[in-house]
């Protein structure tokens, strides 16, 4: 099962949502992201948020069209997107795709990226792949292991960032800048802006948690 979550970030950063229509079993709208889905002709299975970013008329319109709206108070410990992500993880899907989570306010953007590092996400990484995607970037988190990376002309650059204090035993093959048993520390730019030079590359590491980022110009 695949779940797509639409947050309320600026529309200029959205990917083409219709590319994911065939993949998605469930759509979740988050706050103003609900309106974004409806405008794209997509009816979310679940709508979550405090809806402080929509007008009264917009909220009434959503209630009239949607099967379920989960309304939360604006003063709460979790962001609307965190609530939606935790619900999605609980459905035990194979993949979770998050859109509308980049651009706009920098605190929202950084908070959304850090959601990938919360305990609920780290505990499910063996069963669930979670991606934050916009029109130029794809971000995910991985535990130690071996991963095949396929060339994508729309995502030319490949970067690794250490989520934990350090990641060890990093080996990259099929890339412009290969590595063998390298060590990456948090804050290092050692693995920024690499590129695949073959149809498939391989990434492996032995210890730590790593963030993989695929980007284009």
From TrEMBL:
Alphabetized UniProt keyword annotations: ATP-binding, Kinase, Nucleotide-binding, Transferase
Every Thiamin pyrophosphokinase thiamin-binding domain range: 145-211
Record-level GO BP terms: thiamine diphosphate biosynthetic process; thiamine metabolic process
Enzyme class label: transferase
Source species taxonomy: Bacteria, Bacillati, Bacillota, Bacilli, Bacillales
GO MF entry, a single one: thiamine binding
Name of the protein: Thiamine diphosphokinase
SMART domains from the UniProt entry: TPK_B1_binding
Listed EC numbers: 2.7.6.2
Naturally occurring in which organism (per UniProt): Peribacillus asahii
UniProt xrefs under Pfam families: TPK_B1_binding, TPK_catalytic
Domain of life where this protein originates: Bacteria
Keyword Nuclease listed: no
């Amino acid at each position: 099962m695949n779940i797509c979550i639409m947050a309320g970030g600026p529309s200029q950063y959205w990917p083409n949502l219709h590319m994911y229509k065939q993949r998605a079993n469930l759509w979740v709208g988050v706050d103003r992201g609900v309106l974004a889905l409806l405008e794209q002709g997509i009816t979310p299975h679940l709508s979550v948020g405090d809806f402080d970013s929509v007008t009264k008329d917009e909220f009434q319109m959503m209630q009239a069209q949607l099967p379920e709206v989960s309304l939360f108070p604006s003063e709460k410990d979790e962001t609307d997107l965190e609530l939606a992500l935790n619900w999605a993880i609980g459905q035990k899907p194979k993949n979770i795709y998050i859109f509308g989570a980049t651009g706009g306010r920098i605190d929202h953007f950084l908070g959304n990226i850090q959601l990938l590092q919360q305990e609920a996400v780290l505990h499910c990484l063996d069963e669930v792949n979670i991606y934050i995607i916009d029109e130029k970037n794809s971000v995910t988190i991985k535990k130690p292991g071996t991963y095949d990376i396929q060339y994508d002309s729309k995502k030319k650059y490949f970067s690794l960032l250490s989520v934990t204090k350090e990641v060890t035993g990093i080996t990259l093959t099929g890339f412009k800048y290969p590595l063998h048993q390298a060590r990456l520390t948090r804050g290092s730019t050692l693995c920024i802006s690499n590129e695949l030079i073959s149809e498939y590359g391989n990434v492996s590491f032995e210890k730590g948690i790593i963030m993989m980022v695929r980007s284009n110009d």
